[in-house]
Amino acid sequence: MNDVEKVAKIFACSQSTVLAEAIAKQYGLPLGKVITSHYSDGEFQPSFEESVRGSRVFIIGSTFPSSDNLMEMLLMLDAAKRSSARHITAVLPYFGWARQDRKDKPRVPIAAKLVAKMLETAGATRIISMDLHADQIQGFFEKPVDHLYASTVFLPYLKSLNLDNLTIASPDMGGSKRAYAYSKALESDVVICYKQRAKANVISHMELIGDVTGKNVVLVDDLVDTAGTLTHAANLMMERGAKSVRAICTHPVLSGNAYQKIKDSKLEELIVTDSIPQKEESEKIRVVSCAELFADVMKAVHYNKSISSKFLM
C-alpha cells in the first residue's frame, strides 16, 4: 500500500480543538484520539491513542501565547516521529512569535527562526500556515511550507456586502502590499496610514495618506493584538469623512483591553478567522471560518495534488 492509498490521520493540540474538529469534518475524517497527562508542577505529556506507524499525520495547533501552546505542538510532533509516522505535517493556522522575524535592535533574538528550527527538530516534515506576519518566514524552514492566504475566505464575504465607493486601507506602511493585493481583487482605491510608535503597542502619531471622504473603507491587516492601531485608524478615517469603516484581520490575538477598544471605536465590524479561539463574545466581531480552506489543502497535500488555486494573493 503506498502513502496515498493510506488514510491520513488528523490530530489536534488542545488550544485548537474546535477548529481542528471543523477541519476534520470538512476533510471527511474523525479527529484522532489524543490523551494529555498533566503533572502537578505544570508539565504535560500528550499521547496518541492509536497507531500512526507509516501514516501521514496532520497535527493542528495555533501557537499563540502562552508558550505551552508551542510546547504542546513540539511534543506532539516528537511523539509522532517516535511512533514512526512517515509524514508529519504541522498545521499552524496562526504561527506565533512571527513578529520577531529580524533583529530590529542589537542583542535581541530572531524568535520566528528559532521556532521554525524547533518545529523541524521536533519532527515536522511539512508546514501549513496562513497569513504569516512576513512572507520571508517561509525561508526560515528547510522543509516545504504551504503559506495560505485568508483572502480566500475574506474576499467572498467582502463581495457579498456590495459596498459602494469601496476603499481598501492599510493601518501601517508594512501592510501596504497586502492592501494593494485586496484592492486589485476588488478593483478599489487604496489609502495608507502612517504611524509612529513611542514603544511597542503604543502609537505616538498617525497620519492618513489618501482621501476617504464618502468612502466605505475596509482596513486590512494580518493580525489584531491590542487593537490600538486598528481603532485609531478607524476613528481617524471617520473624522476625515469616511462613510463607514470595517476591518478584516486574519488572526484575532486580541490581548489586554482590545475587546473594549473595539466596542468603543467607530469600527462597523471586525471580520476575523477562527485561527485563534475568541476569549469573549462581541457584537462587532464576525468570525469567518478557515476550516474548509485548510481541509482542502491538507487533502491536496495527502493526494499529491496542486494547491495553487488556493493562492488568491
TrEMBL record:
Please report the organism this UniProt entry assigns to the protein. Psychroflexus salis
MF annotations from Gene Ontology: ATP binding; kinase activity; magnesium ion binding; ribose phosphate diphosphokinase activity
GO biological process entries: 5-phosphoribose 1-diphosphate biosynthetic process; purine nucleotide biosynthetic process; ribonucleoside monophosphate biosynthetic process
Superkingdom of source: Bacteria
Pfam families hit by this protein:
Pribosyl_synth (PF14572), Pribosyltran_N (PF13793)
Protein name listed in UniProt: ribose-phosphate diphosphokinase
Tell me which UniProt keywords the record has, alphabetically: ATP-binding, Cytoplasm, Kinase, Magnesium, Metal-binding, Nucleotide biosynthesis, Nucleotide-binding, Transferase
> Which reaction(s) does the protein catalyse, per the Swiss-Prot or TrEMBL entry?
D-ribose 5-phosphate + ATP = 5-phospho-alpha-D-ribose 1-diphosphate + AMP + H(+)
KW Transmembrane (keyword) present: no
> Which Gene3D superfamilies would you find in this protein's record?
3.40.50.2020
User: One GO term of the cellular component aspect?
Assistant: ribose phosphate diphosphokinase complex
The catalytic activity of this protein is classed by the Enzyme Commission as 2.7.6.1
